[in-house]
């Protein structure tokens, strides 16, 4: 990671990346932390991984690797760094640790959890396997290490359909996101045994909201995350992971776009695509928003909070993730 070894970019150049979505007054409050983080990264040979739901000053100004869960899982392998800071939620930090067991992995806030990951335990997975013997378990990466360790293979929203179809079986258990599983079942025809877990951001969207936004914003292209309820996905023009949404926007076929997902995603894309008008429903993820510049700075200053995984869970969870990456 060259950015950890070379001089950091000038602050004014960084502000140019986010000027469209971060007012100058706010930037003045961010600048000291950003400068300190860039220096601390060099001192500790650290890299910062940032999910697409992070705020622009984190996503565009201090992160080294940016993307959706699949991109972060892939790029977390074999990083040229001593320290990895996850600007995301706890299960993402666990995945980074699985892929880099010998590196120090930090999560800036221990409160950065996930309603979806918290909806299921390893004991729940074992009970599902007893109830459906021989049925493979496909586990969304939005899950804890102990749940991954009980699974046959992981998936992300970007590759869920591919992973399910790659197994070549008529029936799978897919956990923990019920809506993602229902959307995959519709697209594949594979019978899917689901779990009633939901993302607290995406489950709040409704089909009527989509119809209302279309009425008030003629010609808008509606992009929905597959964690949304199937009725919401059916109302959208396109459904895909945050990376797929980014690619859709980058193709520039639409000058007005509405993203049915966590609202920092719109801010990050607006910073990168100034010619596009983003209609911004704003369902915030409270867990993602616990990752702030001061929290990242403190994590690098004190090397806290370190993520550890027991060896037996690390091996099982890594195996499920690696199977996904190889599929």
From TrEMBL:
Coiled coil: none
Molecular function, one GO term: quinolinate synthetase A activity
UniProt pathway annotation: Cofactor biosynthesis; NAD(+) biosynthesis; quinolinate from iminoaspartate: step 1/1
Documented EC number(s): 2.5.1.72
InterPro entries named among the record's database cross-references: NadA, NadA_sf
One Pfam family this sequence matches: NadA
Entry annotated with the keyword S-adenosyl-L-methionine: no
Any one GO biological process: 'de novo' NAD+ biosynthetic process from L-aspartate
Annotated Gene Ontology cellular component terms: cytosol
Cofactor(s) required for function per UniProt: [4Fe-4S] cluster
Gene3D superfamilies given in the database record: NadA-like (3.40.50.10800)
UniProt xrefs under PANTHER family: QUINOLINATE SYNTHASE, CHLOROPLASTIC, QUINOLINATE SYNTHETASE A
Claim: Transferase is one of the keywords in the record: yes
Name this polypeptide is given: Quinolinate synthase
UniProt keyword annotations, A-Z: 4Fe-4S, Iron, Iron-sulfur, Metal-binding, Pyridine nucleotide biosynthesis, Transferase
């Amino acid at each position: 990671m060259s950015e950890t070894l070379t001089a950091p970019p000038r602050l004014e150049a960084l502000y140019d990346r986010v000027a469209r979505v971060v007012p100058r007054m706010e930037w003045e409050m961010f600048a000291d932390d950003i400068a300190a983080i860039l220096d601390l990264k060099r001192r500790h040979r650290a890299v910062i991984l940032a999910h697409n739901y992070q705020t622009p000053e984190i996503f565009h100004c201090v992160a080294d690797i940016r993307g959706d869960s699949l991109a972060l899982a892939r790029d977390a392998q074999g990083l040229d760094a001593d320290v990895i800071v996850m600007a995301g939620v706890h299960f993402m930090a666990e995945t980074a640790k699985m892929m880099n067991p010998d590196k120090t992995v930090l999560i800036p806030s221990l409160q950065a959890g996930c309603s979806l990951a918290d909806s299921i335990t390893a004991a729940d997975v074992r009970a599902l396997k007893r109830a459906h013997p021989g049925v493979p378990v496909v586990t969304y990466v939005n899950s804890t290490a102990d749940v991954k360790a009980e699974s046959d293979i992981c998936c992300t929203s970007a590759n869920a359909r591919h992973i399910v179809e790659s197994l070549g079986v008529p029936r799978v258990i897919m956990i923990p996101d019920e809506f993602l599983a229902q959307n995959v079942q519709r697209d594949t025809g594979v019978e899917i045994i689901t779990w009633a877990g939901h993302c607290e951001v995406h489950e709040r969207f409704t089909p009527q909201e989509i119809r209302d936004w279309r009425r008030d914003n003629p010609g808008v292209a509606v992009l929905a995350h597959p964690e949304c309820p199937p009725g919401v996905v059916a109302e959208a023009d396109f459904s895909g992971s945050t990376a797929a949404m980014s690619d859709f926007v980058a193709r520039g076929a639409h000058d007005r776009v509405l993203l049915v997902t966590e609202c920092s995603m719109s801010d990050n894309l607006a910073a990168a695509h100034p010619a596009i008008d983003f209609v911004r429903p704003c369902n915030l993820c409270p867990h993602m928003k616990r990752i702030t510049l001061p929290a990242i700075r403190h994590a690098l200053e004190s090397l806290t909070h370190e993520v550890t995984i027991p060896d037996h869970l690390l091996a099982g969870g890594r195996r499920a993730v690696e199977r996904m990456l190889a599929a």
